[in-house]
Design goal:
The chain is elongated, with a radius of gyration of 21 Å. The strands form three sheets. The protein has a six-stranded parallel beta sheet with strand order 3-2-1-4-5-6, sandwiched between helices. The chain has a five-stranded antiparallel beta sheet with strand order 7-8-13-10-11. By secondary structure, the chain is α/β, with parallel strands linked by helices. It folds into two domains: 147 residues, Rossmann fold (3-Layer(aba) Sandwich), CATH 3.40.50; 101 residues, Regulator of K+ conductance, C-terminal domain (Alpha-Beta Plaits, 2-Layer Sandwich).
């Protein structure tokens, strides 16, 4: 999903301001901590074509990452040691993700080392509000709570089945992926007057499996296809909801869901 590719939740810092501050030629990331969260981040970045250095102090996790090929390079290293990070060249990376959420002292020392070593952008996982506060105090640029975000997403999916995915711009505004409801079927974007009627803007429309950014206002929307819209949470909630898919899309969706749920 398009929104899933950009979705990351920040605390005490606007996500979009963080994205704007990243250099457009940044192609290298380091991920410290190769537990479930770290492996997921590393694997996704690798799939997107970025060069990723995976780091953990546990030999078993480093070996597992190498076998699964979730990173370009893997390294067994104690990130609480400043010189070890320096010698490994970690301070040369623009962005480093500290995925050590359950070991608070190690997480804080690692984050402090990275900032003192000159890393421009450090994203750190927190396990509590106190942990988050400490990470910010030692210089973390972003602090994330993956478990809280998963809980919020689950609650939203249970209460609003029309929204496929969501990215929070701030507490009051979001970018969401939704399916075109029957009320919008075969109507152009211009005809629908979404901005004046619902207070939202369309950013992209799915066309043959690919999203078209800034679609032509004369383009017709079709029931069940995906669109990306931005607006206030209140306005987004006023959009008609697509509760079901056309038969052909429903079958395809079921096959895709079945394939994605198979063991890998």
């Amino acid at each position: 999903m398009l929104v899933s590719q950009i979705q990351q939740v920040a605390v005490n810092m606007s996500p979009l301001s963080f994205f704007r501050s990243l250099r457009p030629d940044n192609k290298q990331f380091a991920v410290i901590g190769l537990g479930r969260f770290g492996r997921s981040v590393s694997s996704t970045l690798t799939q997107f074509g970025y060069e990723v250095l995976g780091i953990d102090r546990t030999e078993e996790l480093v070996f597992q990452a190498m076998v699964e090929k979730i990173a370009s390079h893997c390294l067994k290293l104690d990130a609480t040691k400043f010189l070890a990070l320096k010698e490994a060249g970690v301070f040369e990376f623009d962005t480093v993700v500290v995925a050590i959420g359950n070991f608070i002292e190690e997480s804080i020392i690692t984050t402090l080392n990275l900032k003192e070593g000159g890393v421009k952008h450090v994203v750190a996982k927190a396990s509590s509000e106190v942990h988050s506060t400490l990470l910010h105090k030692v210089g973390a640029d972003r602090v994330i709570f993956p478990e809280q975000e998963m809980g919020r997403n689950l609650a939203r999916s249970l209460t609003n089945t029309g929204i496929i995915d969501r990215f929070e711009v701030d507490p009051d505004h979001s970018i969401v992926e939704v399916r075109v409801p029957k009320e919008f079927d075969n109507k152009t974007i211009l005809e629908l007057r979404l901005r004046s009627t619902y207070g939202v803007n369309i950013l992209a429309v799915n066309h043959n499996g690919r999203f078209e950014i800034n679609p032509n206002p004369e383009q017709k929307l079709h029931f069940g296809t995906e669109i990306i819209v931005i607006g206030s949470n209140q306005d987004i909630a006023r959009l008609p909801v697509c509760h079901s898919l056309p038969a052909n899309q429903s079958d395809h969706h079921a096959v895709s869901q079945s394939a994605s749920s198979r063991p890998v």
